[in-house]
Specification:
Layout lengths: L1 H15 L6 H20 L4 H22 L3 H13 L6 E5 L4 E12 L5 E11 L2 E11 L5 E3 L2
Antiparallel strand pairs: 1-2, 2-3, 3-4, 4-5
Helix pairs in contact: 1-2, 1-3, 2-3
Length: about 150
């Protein structure tokens, strides 16, 4: 489940940068796809179809909820944490537009085999007392931006 939420959050961050759709729609689409993939992995035999359907529906719901509470300002602050924070140093903020409390914490820094500077991180989003955590890895690109790789 942790890997699913990580993939979902990462995908939602990418989708929120697109102007083609709302954050909720993008999150629902990405969450639905990832939920279907997860359902396919856990279901067996005749139960596989039910697991895919349930995973798709649950993923779409969770994706739309997380997408609703992330905006471009949140993405900029998370990227700033990757750029400037030491390992295990959190950046926290409150988004007055969504009511979300967000925390971004780089947890490990390393150089990839291809020479990119990479960081593992944890992001926590809390809305109305409900906390969602996501984990991932991002690598610095030649232009200075951070690209989520998983």
């Amino acid at each position: 489940m942790k890997k699913f939420l990580t993939m979902l959050f990462i995908a939602i961050l990418a989708v929120t940068m697109s102007a083609c759709q709302t954050k909720e729609q993008g999150g629902a689409v990405v969450g639905g796809v990832l939920g279907g993939v997860l359902g396919n992995q856990v279901g067996q035999g005749s139960g596989r179809t039910a697991a895919i359907i349930a995973g798709t529906l649950l993923g779409a719901y969770v994706g739309s909820e997380m997408g609703r509470y992330m905006d471009e300002n949140d993405n900029r602050k998370a990227e700033s944490a990757l750029e400037y924070n030491r390992d295990h140093q959190s950046s926290t903020w409150h988004n007055p537009n969504t009511g979300a409390d967000v925390s971004a914490t780089p947890t490990s820094t390393y150089q990839s085999a291809s020479g990119e500077n990479c960081r593992e991180y944890q992001t926590t989003v809390t809305v109305n007392g409900k906390k969602e955590k996501a984990y991932g890895t991002a690598c610095r690109q030649p232009n200075g931006s951070w690209k989520v790789i998983n």
